[in-house]
Specification:
By secondary structure, this protein is an alpha/beta fold. 37% of the residues lie in helices and 26% in strands. The chain contains four helices and five strands; from the N terminus they run E-H-E-H-E-H-E-E-H. The chain has a five-stranded mixed beta sheet. The protein is globular and about 30 Å long.
C-alpha cells in the first residue's frame, strides 16, 4: 500500500519532478483549517491508489517550491506528470473528484 511522502524544497525534484509515476502534491500549512480537513482524504487516496504517488509539501517550511508554482491559496493539490504540473485543484475537494483528476492526467 502506498503512503504519503513528505517533500521539501530539497527533495522535491527527485520525488516529484523525476518520478516515473504521476504525483499528487498537497500544498498545505499547519495553521490552515481547510488543509486539516483535506488531510484524511489525502491519506485515504494514498492508501487506495498505487498507480500514482501522493506527497505533502508544507508551504511555510518550503517557500521556494510554493513560490515556484505560484501557490497563492491552500490547500492546493498539484498534479505532476513528466516533470511539470499538469493540473491543480484549490480548496477542500471531495475525494472522488481528486482521484478522477489525477487519473485523467495519468
Amino acid at each position: 500500500m502506498a503512503k504519503v511522502i513528505e517533500v521539501t524544497d530539497t527533495n522535491f525534484s527527485e520525488e516529484v519532478l523525476q518520478s516515473d509515476k504521476p504525483v499528487l502534491v498537497d500544498f498545505w500549512a499547519a495553521w490552515c483549517g481547510p488543509c486539516r480537513m483535506m488531510a484524511p482524504i489525502i491519506e485515504e487516496i494514498a492508501q487506495e491508489n498505487d498507480d500514482f504517488k501522493v506527497a505533502k509539501l508544507n508551504v511555510d517550511e518550503n517557500p521556494l517550491i510554493a513560490s515556484t508554482y505560484r501557490i497563492m491559496s491552500i490547500p492546493t493539490l498539484g498534479i505532476f506528470k513528466g516533470g511539470r504540473m499538469v493540473d491543480q485543484i484549490v480548496g477542500v475537494t471531495p475525494k472522488q473528484t481528486v482521484v478522477n483528476a489525477v487519473k485523467a492526467a495519468v
